Amino acid sequence: MPTVASEPRPASSADSGPLLAVESLTVTFATRRGVVRAVDGISYVLEAGRTLGVVGESGCGKTVTALALLGLVDPPGKISGGRVMFEGRDLLALDETAMEGVRGARIAMIFQEPMTALNPVYTIGDQIGEVFTTHRGHSRGQARDGAVDMLERVGMPAPARRARDYPHQLSGGMRQRAMIAMALAGRPALLIADEPTTALDVTVQAQILELMLDIQDSFGTAIQFISHDLGVISEIADEVAVMYAGRIVEHAPADVIFDNPLHPYTQGLLATVPRIGAGLDRLPAISGNVPDLARLPAGCAFRDRCPKAGPDCAVAPPLDIAEPGHRVACFRVAR
């Protein structure tokens, strides 16, 4: 795989502080059954050049959080509270014109399914080239050359030929590389990757992860990596935020999460990961079902599935510091 050539990272207006600081972000959806809090007051910080892994079961709010950062929550969804400080600006206070200057240029997203994210009626080269013309002011010829260059950087075979292809003519791994090339064409400071290795075979998956780490080393890019695959998260993340029912229930450095998970939900997730030599006839499973966000239990949303639940769990636990650098939302954890 070609090494991604380093380019100077554009200066940030907030180099003295964190690249991204999310504060009490809340996203609600108005439904016939009432208002659903898909993201419920979450807060976290992401530094330049670091990778935050966001994990949790389907429907926990991982993707909605990412869309909120980009201002892409469509009705009936609404960002109903909080701040998203990025490079010293609150993204939630920007109008649509200002946000268009952020999307693709300073924050880029790799969507979960490239076949639906890529436009089927435009060539791969045209779609990557649009980033160069829109965000970097290149001519059409420069954009065409830039698209081929980006495809070469992400390890696309025969990049000049593939730039003339349409999405349906590429394999799944090639489409994912094209999505990454498009995301990086604007030299973003933050890359959001939503399940970027889902449905890829393990060889291609490993290549994509290696590519993303190479990109990070070359550009100083921060990555918010969304996945339900804890094995993938262990390979790429510096920190891990575990989400459940719209809230972060545990947040710590990746090695701490994997070596010493404190929240019963995190413990349950890790117990379901197959281990060579474990000698189990059947993998453990978390009992019960993911809660209905419109009918959450009072207090801790995990209490009905938790083997450690007690009377105090009738009150929602805050995300508190259990030990330095390790936050957990659980009353049953010794602090």
List keywords for this structure.
alpha/beta; 23% strand; 335 residues; 4-stranded antiparallel beta sheet
Query: What is the rounded distance between the termini?
Result: 46 Å
Q: Tell me the β content.
A: 15-25%
Q: Give the % helix.
A: 25-40%
Name the overall outline: globular
DSSP summary, beta strand count? 12
Mean pLDDT: 89
Radius of gyration equals 21 Å
Order of helices and strands: EEEHEEHEHHHHHEHEHEEHHEE
Please give the order of strands in the largest beta sheet.
Answer: 6-7-8-3-9-10-12-11
Query: What does the main sheet amount to?
Result: 8 strands, mixed
| Secondary-structure-derived class | alpha/beta
Number of helical segments with 4 or more residues = 11
Explain this structure to me?
The protein is an alpha/beta fold and 335 residues long. 30% of the residues lie in helices and 23% in strands. The protein contains eleven helices and twelve strands. It has helices at residues 62-69, 96-102, 114-117, 124-135, 140-153, 159-162, 172-184, 202-219, 230-236, 254-259, 264-271; strands at 20-31, 34-46, 51-55, 77-86, 89-90, 107-110, 190-194, 222-226, 239-244, 247-253, 320-323, 326-328. It has an eight-stranded mixed sheet, with helices on both faces. Strand 9 (239-244) and strand 10 form a beta hairpin. Helix 4 packs across helix 5 (140-153), helix 4 (124-135) packs parallel to helix 7 (172-184) and helix 7 packs parallel to helix 8. The longest helix is centred in the middle third of the chain and has 18 residues, at 202-219. The model is unreliable at 3-14 (pLDDT under 50).
